């Protein structure tokens, strides 16, 4: 066959595949938004869910999703970033290091339902945290930590080696080189990775079914004492998140407007994740410019 | 390959007739990468306030040797080093030597210009601040002095807060030299500093090195034999990990003792 013809065939196949991919994604996104946007209203976002009457909202679920996400990030980011820096900068190549790296990879691809069951056994039962924000956040930490470690390690490894040598050759210690040169240079990619993983955590349901629970106590948004049982900030209350809510109304909801609620919730979820992603890109770009001078 | 006639090479700075004191005395240095014996039993004096060039074909161990002088090879886990390099009566290969302090006194400039992705002034001030300089006035003054020393001041004085990566390759390399000078080292090691640059920028760096050697000891690895001939007072020829010949540049280029040196500088191999 003529090499020009091969070239043309290859191009058409690639274009076709790309088009198929784009069509699937866009139509799915479109379907969710078209079906869901109509049910989103201020009332929908600011009303608590009603168990069997129509007209319930998703206020508590939305709050729970963000709160669980926040606690998860509070736990994972410091540990994950430090772990990633260790693997990229300090760990000596050898059996132990490659074993740790394999563990991180396996953990990153663990099915989330398995993480949920693990969380049920360890955090909910063994530690006695019950179905709670804390149990959910800890389970999501197991789920998210390897991702942050990977993102950080990759961010550091992507830096040119001569940056590090430059710092060391100027009489700076290894830590100072990491702190003042490598971390700022890797920061935009690490931050982007963190925000993208936040999107994943935000949409996670299976890991939360058995850890954060399927219900939310009557929250009093005027009570910000984290020890009060009805406070939104209480770590030891159960907390149904938005994605768990979608699952639970679809499988066992008895309110007449189940479809509207599910569609609306799905759209809100997708829009939040979309905002995370756009935000990640924007912030990465701004910070990159800021750190590297104008 | 370059057909170089020895008699047409000018030795602009071989005006150094009397020997300068030895700053670094290298004795029986052996360097290994795992099983690979990369540098074999090298003994060589490095004279104060002069330029010593290390030449030789790729993979001859010259860069490895250079990187040992300020212990940059410590970064490579499999690298191992034997022998002594005496500097101020201390063997700098001793594991107990404080490498951070050592690298302040023996600075290094790399093949690829490696300014930090920060502003021009920050590139010079960052290592200074780590070294304990706090006064803003001093920092500003040193920045200006160092940039003037490398002839970069007039080119960048209006954009010191711009990113160093916006400079041209030659400017970046001069900034890297300025950054090394800011720490007031005794010795500056340069690993093929002009091989990534265009001829005009290279010439500027060569001129700069000739000026700098009045106050600093300079060791330069170069692929370019004419460059060694133009700027170096002493030249060492490395081949397959061994130091074949060392002497004043003039002697080495005009009356080499060994046949392989003669072959290399006349362009018969390498």
UniProtKB/TrEMBL annotation, chain A:
GO terms for biological process: phosphate ion transmembrane transport. PROSITE patterns: ABC_TM1. Keywords: Cell membrane, Membrane, Transmembrane, Transmembrane helix, Transport. It is found in: Cell membrane. GO terms for molecular function: phosphate transmembrane transporter activity. The chain crosses the membrane at residues 9-34, 66-87, 99-123, 129-149, 181-202, 261-280. Residues 62-280 form the ABC transmembrane type-1 domain. It is a multi-pass membrane protein. InterPro entries: MetI-like, MetI-like_sf, Phosphate_PstA. SUPFAM superfamilies: MetI-like. Belongs to the binding-protein-dependent transport system permease family. CysTW subfamily. This is Phosphate transport system permease protein PstA. It comes from Sporolactobacillus inulinus CASD.
From TrEMBL, chain B:
Keywords: ATP-binding, Nucleotide-binding, Transport. SUPFAM superfamilies: P-loop containing nucleoside triphosphate hydrolases. InterPro entries: AAA+_ATPase, ABC_transporter-like_ATP-bd, ABC_transporter-like_CS, P-loop_NTPase, PstB-like. The keyword ATP-binding applies. GO terms for biological process: phosphate ion transmembrane transport. Residues 24-265 form the ABC transporter domain. Gene3D superfamilies: P-loop containing nucleotide triphosphate hydrolases (3.40.50.300). One of its GO terms (cellular component) is membrane. GO terms for molecular function: ATP binding; ATP hydrolysis activity; phosphate transmembrane transporter activity. Coiled coil: none annotated. Signal peptide: none annotated. This is Phosphate ABC transporter ATP-binding protein. It comes from Sporolactobacillus inulinus CASD.
């Amino acid at each position: 066959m003529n090499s020009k013809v091969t070239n043309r065939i290859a191009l058409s196949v690639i274009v076709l595949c790309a088009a198929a991919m784009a069509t699937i994604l866009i139509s799915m996104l479109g379907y969710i938004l078209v079906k869901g946007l109509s049910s989103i209203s201020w009332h929908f976002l600011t009303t608590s869910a009603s168990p069997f009457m129509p007209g319930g909202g998703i206020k508590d679920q939305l709050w729970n999703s963000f709160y669980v996400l926040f606690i998860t990030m509070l736990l994972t980011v410091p540990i994950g970033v430090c772990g990633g820096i260790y693997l990229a900068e300090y760990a000596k190549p050898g059996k132990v290091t490659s074993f740790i790296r394999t563990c991180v990879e396996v953990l990153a691809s663990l099915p989330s339902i398995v993480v949920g069951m693990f969380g049920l056994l360890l955090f909910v039962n063994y530690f006695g945290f019950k179905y709670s924000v804390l149990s959910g956040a800890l389970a999501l930490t197991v789920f998210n930590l390897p991702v942050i470690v990977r993102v950080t390690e990759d961010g550091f490894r992507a830096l040119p080696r001569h940056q590090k040598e430059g710092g060391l050759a100027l009489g700076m210690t290894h830590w100072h080189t990491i702190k003042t040169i490598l971390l700022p240079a890797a920061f935009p990619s690490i931050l982007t990775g963190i925000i993208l993983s936040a999107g994943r955590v935000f949409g996670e349901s299976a890991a939360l079914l058995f850890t954060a629970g399927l219900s939310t106590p009557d929250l009093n948004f005027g009570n910000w004492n984290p020890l009060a049982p009805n406070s939104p900030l209480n770590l030891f209350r159960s907390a149904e998140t938005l994605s768990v809510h979608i699952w639970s109304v679809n499988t066992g909801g008895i309110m007449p407007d189940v479809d509207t609620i599910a569609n609306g919730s799905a759209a809100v979820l997708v829009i939040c994740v979309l905002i995370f992603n756009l935000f990640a890109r924007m912030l990465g770009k701004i910070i990159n410019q800021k750190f590297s001078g104008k | 390959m370059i057909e170089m006639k020895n008699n047409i090479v000018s030795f602009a700075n071989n005006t150094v007739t009397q020997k300068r004191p030895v700053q670094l005395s290298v004795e029986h240095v052996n360097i290994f990468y795992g099983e690979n014996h990369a540098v074999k039993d090298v003994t060589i004096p490095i004279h104060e306030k002069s330029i010593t060039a290390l030449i030789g074909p790729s993979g001859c161990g010259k860069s490895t040797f250079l990187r040992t002088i300020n212990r940059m090879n410590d970064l490579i886990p499999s690298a191992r080093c034997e022998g002594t390099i005496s500097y101020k009566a201390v063997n700098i290969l001793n594991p107990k030597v404080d490498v951070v302090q050592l690298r302040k006194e023996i600075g290094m400039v790399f093949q690829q210009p490696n300014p930090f992705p920060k502003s021009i002034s920050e590139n010079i001030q960052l290592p200074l601040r780590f070294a304990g300089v706090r006064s803003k006035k001093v920092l500003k003054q040193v920045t200006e002095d160092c940039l003037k020393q490398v002839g970069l001041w007039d080119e960048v004085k209006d954009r010191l807060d711009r990113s160093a990566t916006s400079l041209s390759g030659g400017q970046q390399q001069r900034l890297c030299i300025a950054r090394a000078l800011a720490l007031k080292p005794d010795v500056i090691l340069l690993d093929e500093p002009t091989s990534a640059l265009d001829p005009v920028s290279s010439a500027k760096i060569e001129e700069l090195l000739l000026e700098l050697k009045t106050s600093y000891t300079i060791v330069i690895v170069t692929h370019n034999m004419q460059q060694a001939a133009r700027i170096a007072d002493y030249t060492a020829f490395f081949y397959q990990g061994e130091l074949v010949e060392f002497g004043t540049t003039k002697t080495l280029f005009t009356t080499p003792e060994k046949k392989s040196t003669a072959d290399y500088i006349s362009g018969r191999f390498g």
